[in-house]
Amino acid sequence: MIVPESHIVVIFGASGDLTRRKLIPALYQLFCDKLLPPHFAIVGASRTEFTDDEFRERMKENLKDTTDHLDEFLKKIYYLSIDTLGSESYENLKNRLEELCSSLEIPPNYLFYLSTPPNLDQVIPAMLAKVGLNSTKDGFRRLIIEKPFGSSLESARKLNSNLLRNFREDQIFRIDHYLGKETVQNLMVTRFANGIFEPVWNRNFVQRVEVTGVETLGIENRGGYYEQAGALRDMVQNHLLQMVALIAMEPPVVIEANAIRYEKMKVFQSLRPIKSEEVGKQVVRGQYIASTIKGESVAAYREEANVDSESHTETYVAMKFFIDNWRWAGVPFYIRTGKRLPTSVTEIVIEFKPTPHHLFDESAFNHHSANQLILRIQPDEGILLKIGMKEPGSGFKVKPVNIDFHYSSLADIKLPSAYERLLLDGMRGDATLFSRGDTVEAAWSFIQPILDAWANDASVPLYGYPAGTWGPIESDQLIEGDQTWRYPCKNLTDDGFYCEL
Ligand code: BG6
Fold first, then answer.
1. Are strands 206-214 and 40-46 parallel, antiparallel or unpaired?
2. Which of the listed residues 62, 234, 236, 240 has the most CB atoms within 10 Å of its CB?
3. What was the pLDDT predicted at 67?
4. Which segments of 64-169 are extended strands (E)?
5. CA distances for 225 relative to 117, 118, 241, 384, angstroms
6. Could you tell me which of 151, 160, 158 has the C-alpha nearest to residue 237?
7. pLDDT tens, 97-145?
8. Ligand 1: distance of its center to the CA of 238 in Å?
9. Which pLDDT band, with edges at 50, 70 and 90, does 495 fall under?
10. DSSP state of 484
11. Angle at CA 81, nearest 5°, toward 77 and 86?
12. Parallel, antiparallel, or unpaired: how do β-strands 141-145 and 296-298 relate?
């Protein structure tokens, strides 16, 4: 494992939830795994006043001292209170960084992590540039930008062009934490390291593809953000479409940032646009309503804090679309996401075409649900192949069986968290798992007509679904014939409507 060059990580939005819950724990884990450079510091920056020690204490609350290294790690953390809109603050930041570089013998390499509200995505980089903190003359200067990257096609384009005024594309790392998940990366390995999958991975053998990314959680304390975002912007434009790209793309020439991004871009360019008059038929949106889950009352979305009592924001989206290229012509892709569903699961289902002729007694064997490859991203990460086998005994009765592999069986290997992987890659300057500006815009181009239709056409329904159910029943009608979505359970190998969730 290559340890990154010595540098300083500056986290903007350091008093926020993401820093405490994800970023600092990921950095601590990298420290424990000896993956941080010997000369290294973290500078938290946000509006709240903290001393270095107060900030360290706050960060400590989320860290478990499993290795006796915690105090040593905490000493690497510093804090600077800043006004993100004030030039003086950036002069102070520059001076503080220079001081730390000289006292800690760190070369002036800086990784700026923007864990801030989207309206600061343009401001902070421009302010950094004003004081010369974008210049790569004496060291590296990189920006990691959290999602959401824009809130529409137009805003994403504007954001990209503003960023590119002060930073080069190779300095900008747009994060999509799904790409940091070990099992999402495994999609490429499964497809391209095994001879058996690629030959059947196309329109000749695949009936349909399904991507599900659903959660039991509601919107937690994020009403303000979620009201503006909704499920389409929050999950589909980024996480779900990124997974679609990895499933659908051609093999890259090499495993290297540009080669992979190029193949993904081709997938986005091939997405058949959904016309505004088709939105009602191809996209189902829903919002959770009050319900009782396992005996406990759960509030409706409209009753959550900072949510409009007549809100039309969707907490569920299911859609059907096509990828118009040689490999996927005619194969429907179905994707869905939702809050307050019965279980939290992310998985991809590749359903294969049935045999052309049925020879056996298949009364107990449904070709659709039992002819599938399931790639489970989380939880119970693994791979499941559902096929038909002979039921023991007389005759030739076909019975569905599971062939399954669970990541947990690789017990000696620890799965790094998505943020560990992505932070480490950002520190090393490896952009393979980050999104390039043009691919983000291409994903927005696909999403924008849906947003427009929802905003402008009052006849497109917003369905209510009781919290704790699988979303609007209309989403099953997206799927052709009498087929339905796979209804997954907590465990990879169980399925059905009423399994243990
Ligand atoms: C985030 C969304 O990007 O992803 C959240 O903003 C969502 O609304 C989360 O809950 C899901 O991530 P994970 O890693 O828990 O599947």
1. unpaired
2. 236
3. 67
4. 77-81, 110-114, 141-145
5. 9, 10, 21, 36
6. 151
7. 999 999 999 999 999 999 998 889 999 999 999 999 999 999 999 999 9
8. 11
9. low
10. -
11. 135
12. unpaired
Two structure tokens written together for 389: 């086998």
Which residue, 163, 117, 119, 120, is CA-closest to 142?
A: 163
**Amino acid at site 351:** E
The model's pLDDT over 434-454, given as tens digits with 9 standing for 90+, comes to: 999 999 999 999 999 999 999
What is the pLDDT at residue 152? 95
pLDDT, tens digit, 9 for 90 and up, residues 347-372: 999 999 988 888 887 777 777 677 89
DSSP E strands, 198-306:
206-214, 283-289, 291-293, 296-298
The number of the ligand 1 atom at minimal distance from the alpha carbon of 217 is 10
CB contact at 8 A, 353 and 218? no
214 Cα: distance to centroid of ligand 1 (angstroms) = 9
499 has pLDDT over 70 = no
- The C-alpha atoms of residue 450 and residue 232 are separated, in whole angstroms, by 9
Please identify which of the residues 39, 69, 177, 239 carries the catalytic annotation: 239
- Specify whether the CB–CB gap between 495 and 347 falls below 8 A: no
Alpha-carbon distance values, 74 to 51, 52, 65, 96, 395 (Å): 13, 10, 11, 18, 69
List the structure tokens of 356. Answer: 């052309």
What's the CA angle centered on 217, arms 446 and 449, to 5 degrees?
15
E strand map for 365-483? 372-378, 382-390, 398-406, 462-466
Residue that is written with structure tokens 């009403």 in the block: 223
C-alpha 241/C-alpha 441 separation (Å) is: 12
Cis status, amide bond into 472, omega within 30 of 0: no
Ligand 1 atom showing the smallest separation from residue 344 Cα: 16
Q: Go through 105-131 and write b for each residue having 16 or more CB atoms within 10 A of its CB, e for each that does not.
A: ebebbbbbbbbbebebbbebbebbbeb
DSSP 239: I
Whose structure tokens read 């503080």? 96
Tell me if residue 239 is catalytic: yes
pLDDT of 498: 47
Helix (H) or strand (E) holding 147: none
Residue 378 alpha carbon to ligand 1 centre in Å: 12
Report field, pTM of the whole predicted structure over 0.90: yes
* Domains of the chain, first to last: 7-146 (3.40.50.720), 179-478 (3.30.360.10)
- Mean local confidence (pLDDT), 466-483: 90
